[in-house]
Amino acid sequence: xxxxxxxxxxxxxxxxxxxxxxxxxxxxxxxxxxxxxxxxxxxxxxxxxxxxxxxxxxxxxxxxxxxxxxxxxxxxxxxxxxxxxxxxxxxxxxxxxxxxxxxxxxxxxxxxxxxxxxxxxxxxxxxxxxxxxxxxxxxxxxxxxxxxxxxxxxxxxxxxxxxxxxxxxxxxxxxxxxxxxxxxxxxxxxxxxxxxxxxxxxxxxxxxxxxxxxxxxxxxxxxxxxxxxxxxxxxxxxxxxxxxxxxxxxxxxxxxxxxxxxxxxxxxxxxxxxxxxxxxxxxxxxxxxxxxxxxxxxxxxxxxxxxxxxxxxxxxxxxxxxxxxxxxxxxxxxxxxxxxxxxxxxxxxxxxxxxxxxxxxxxxxxxxxxxxxxxxxxxxxxxxxxxxxxxxxxxxxxxxxxxxxxxxxxxxxxxxxxxxxxxxxxxxxxxxxxxxxxxxxxxxxxxxxxxxxxxxxxxxxxxxxxxxxxxxxxxxxxxxxxxxxxxxxxxxxxxxxxxxxxxxxxxxxxxxxxxxxxxxxxxxxxxxxxxxxxxxxxxxxxxxxxxxxxxxxxxxxxxxxxxxxxxxxxxxxxxxxxxxxxxxxxxxxxxxxxxxxxxxxxxxxxxxxxxxxxxxxxx
Amino acid sequence: xxxxxxxxxxxxxxxxxxxxxxxxxxxxxxxxxxxxxxxxxxxxxxxxxxxxxxxxxxxxxxxxxxxxxxxxx
Lengths: 619, 73
Fold this sequence. Notes:
The complex is a heterodimer.
Chain A: H1 2-23, H2 31-58, H3 65-78, H4 82-113, E1 121-125, E2 128-132, E3 142-145, E4 155-159, E5 162-165, H5 167-170, E6 175-178, E7 183-184, E8 189-190, E9 195-199, H6 207-218, H7 224-254, H8 260-272, H9 277-296, E10 299-301, H10 304-311, E11 313-319, H11 320-324, E12 325-336, H12 341-351, H13 358-366, E13 376-382, E14 386-391, E15 394-399, H14 401-406, E16 419-425, E17 428-439, H15 443-452, E18 457-461, H16 466-476, E19 480-482, H17 487-499, E20 506-511, H18 517-522, E21 525-528, H19 535-540, E22 543-545, H20 551-586, H21 592-611
Parallel strand pairs in A: 11-18, 11-20, 18-19, 20-21, 21-22
Antiparallel strand pairs in A: 1-2, 1-3, 3-9, 4-7, 4-9, 5-6, 5-8, 10-22, 12-17, 13-14, 14-15, 15-16, 16-17
Helix pairs in contact in A: 1-2, 1-4, 2-3, 2-4, 3-4, 3-8, 4-9, 4-21, 7-8, 7-9, 8-21, 9-20, 9-21, 10-20, 12-13, 20-21
Chain B: E1 2-8, H1 13-24, E2 29-35, E3 40-45, H2 50-64, E4 69-72
Antiparallel strand pairs in B: 1-3, 1-4, 2-3
Helix pairs in contact in B: 1-2
């Protein structure tokens, strides 16, 4: 790199000297000396290109940019356009230098963005502490995490308490309290106290490694724009070279008074612009930057293709519980018949003991007494309806109205707002528990802003009752909702919504990534929310939002739109300038100087432009 | 099986695209991707042909960019 730069500077100085002497019109030095100076500067700057061109021809690689640049510049010398010959080489080399510098810099800055990889772990062996590579730590080993260190592997705290900062994973600074028994995730930074952690996952499987892998490999799933550019590049060079050859040979033979030198100059100008470099570098760079920027905001995009699809999204379908609402239910009211309220809750909490459905969780939490799994037998979970189990040998059925209807149990139809969990004991109606879920704080604003971000339709799917769905939908200003859906119905509904979409637009589905894997897979883009710590969700989705703020959906869409806009700007700009200069030079209106700009300048500008995709802090 | 390599000194994006195309054309390759920006090459191919494929891939890479060093990750 350094050597390269010095060669350009020395060559440039010699070239400048030659130019000055040239404009002196042979008063200081004779013409042949000036030519010799041009030649010297050319050799200083471009000999490696010519050398590479020759070597590559022997390797069977004819039309590469080294060859084309050599032909263009040597050709310029032959028709005595010496300054052009040197200048083209000089600018080309400067451009190459800049390009490799820019690429290295972007490689580095993206690596920095993802600098969440822990370097070491403090492994406890006997009484002593050893600094080891996180790779060497095994499941069950104990490690110490000091204040200010990154937690290197996923595990459980067995000693000490502290607060940890998850911002490296979620993009948002939210300190989290941890104490003995808490799960901690690798990649978080320990903020306040020394903790000892028992490792539960090897480094390979740990959160931080999974995330890094995902982002690093994301750009191997290429977007349509990238594929287009690759295909374009494949045809572009041969086409330009063929036109150049035609320009050099045909017009001088057919047109009266056309000089060979004039047309050869035009043809050589073509060769200067024949490399598709600007496009080939800048489009993937835009996507890479976009994905890197998104990961900094706690949004993992698994491929350039998904980022592209997200930018074209027209319909966003949301799951309700846990996505739009907090997914934390509070018991509002217990209405019991022939049994005390406390007893009813006790039976219900036990029946739901094995379920991790958000409603079950909240019912268990509402019951203050001890839970004893020995009292529970014959548990049967009925998807979308509820649970049947034997508690203290009594048959308890807990679920929605559908379950009661199926079991032929008449139930209370009190007009109340909220989710009603009906309970039957030994086939007899025993009352209901009214629970309520709350909307997430920023969700109303997010839905409104999505509209402004060109999302035409927002739709909610829920297993919950129609009245609740209607009320939430109205509160949020959603375009549509489908309620009382069983998990299987969600797939069918999504297909129906899919049919409403315009042909070239996309549909995104947002869920928790755990209970809705089939729906996530069906949508063009499956987005999982609140995925931190859930491998299943990270596996299932195309785009993973680490924390559970709905606003991040908007952020993701905006990042995608910005990235795509930059990619297209680069495409239009680069192709536009090249085609314009090609036309002008065919007509004899553009000099080689213009051609060098079209090649090198455009590449530089396009690269600089693609860096903008990295800057997503304010989206 | 899938193998990942780091291509140290990969400098030219267009060359990377050409390498990728040629390697994908090799017999037995299911999918090969070269990521110019991370300098990573991933080859997915039939197990028994993997060694031959890697040797051919190395030749292809050297043809376009002789300065590249191929390292197994």
